[in-house]
Amino acid sequence: MKAASGALVTLLATDHYLMADLYTITLRGGSILRWTNFDTNLVISSTTWTCATDNGSQPIVTRGEIRNARGTEVGTCDLTLLGGTSATISGTRLGVFALNGGFDGAQVLIQRIFMATAGDTSAGAVTIFQGLVAAVDPGATQTVLHLKDIKEYLSISFPRNLWQPGCNNQFCDAGCGLSLAAYTTAETVTAGATTTSIPGSVVKASGYFQGGVLTFTSGANAGFSTPIRSYSGGVFVPALALPSTPSTGDTFTATAGCPRTQAACATFGNSANFQGYPYVPPVETAF
User: Fold this and answer.
1) Which stretch of DSSP H or E encloses residue 132?
2) Residue 287 confidence (pLDDT) above 60
3) Are 76 and 63 in contact (CB under 8 A)?
4) What is the DSSP pairing of strand 47-51 with strand 32-36?
5) Quick check: is 130 in a domain?
6) SS3 label, residue 58
7) Distance from chain centroid for Cα 255
8) Are 80 and 64 a contacting pair, CB within 8 Å?
9) Helix (H, G, I), strand (E, B), or coil: what is residue 52?
């Protein structure tokens, strides 16, 4: 049973009302997107859900059937974001943002608002789905978010930490404690770049950026990110070929890579936060 205000119960008893869906998407970084499929923006308790316009920066949102299941079976729903070539998220084209994992692990709340007249949100909204983005299908003009309801959290594997030689922390996450900004370098493309080999303007020790992330901030590849396969002599080799050959002078950022070993943690001066078990014996000698 879904909770509803007295005003909403009264409104639903009438023979005329308007409906709209409200989509609240909380990204992993904490940014919140609030969209509606209504023709105009909707305001509820001073919070605004914005509507999409033709050729605008906000995608048009459509949803598939919500499948709710009894017991512990996980419910599902698909959201389709129609953005053409103009929709962007945080300044990055919709398809590129999705391809780079921008929606991965995002939390999604879908509500339905009922109105006596357009824009009258006083009756309140009803939650019809709450969950997270389980998979993403990015495309050139549309992106599909495959959602699973909050029972999906029951599938999180245990134990929390694995007994393995490598560190359980991710580089510069809360457990690691280092600042990613301190290990991010602003680079400029120099002569001779291709889609698979990018010479940079700032030279670090060989291997410094291996395993890190390269993100273009200008030029034809702006917004595109890829892991760094290798780095030597100031030249970056991306794990994914760039969509376009970068031009000399294009700018990008590169983050340091960390192999998550005890020795690497010591190199970063962060041994106190190392969360691996380097002395676990190999399988063949463990018994």
Assistant:
1) strand 125-137
2) no
3) no
4) parallel
5) yes
6) coil
7) 18
8) yes
9) coil
Residue 80: count of CB within 10 angstroms of its CB: 16
CB atoms < 10 A from the CB of 146, how many? 14
**CA–CA separation, 218 vs 92, rounded Å?**
11
Is there a single domain that holds both residue 21 and residue 140? yes
CA-to-CA distance for 233 and 13, rounded, in angstroms? 73
Say how many domains are in the chain. Answer: 2
Is residue 232, in this structure, part of any structural domain at all? yes
Cis-peptide, bond into residue 159, ω within 30° of zero: yes
226: closest CA among 197, 247, 190? 197
Task: Output the six-digit token pair for 26.
Answer: 């909380």
Give the number of other CB atoms < 10 A from CB of residue 42: 22
Helical (H) or strand (E) element with 143: strand 142-149
- Kindly report the backbone phi and psi dihedral angles of residue 18, in degrees, each rounded to the nearest multiple of 5, phi listed first: -105, 150
Give the angle subtended at the CA of 127 by the CAs of 108 and 110, to the nearest 5°: 30
Same domain, 12 and 61: yes
Is the domain of 41 the same as that of 149? yes
Which residues constitute the domain of residue 209?
180-273
Q: Which residue has the tokens 């998220």?
A: 89
Residue 1: pLDDT band (50, 70, 90) is low
The amino acid that residue 235 corresponds to is V
- Where do we find the tokens 């594997």? 157
Structure confidence by residue, pLDDT tens digits, 4-13: 677 777 877 7
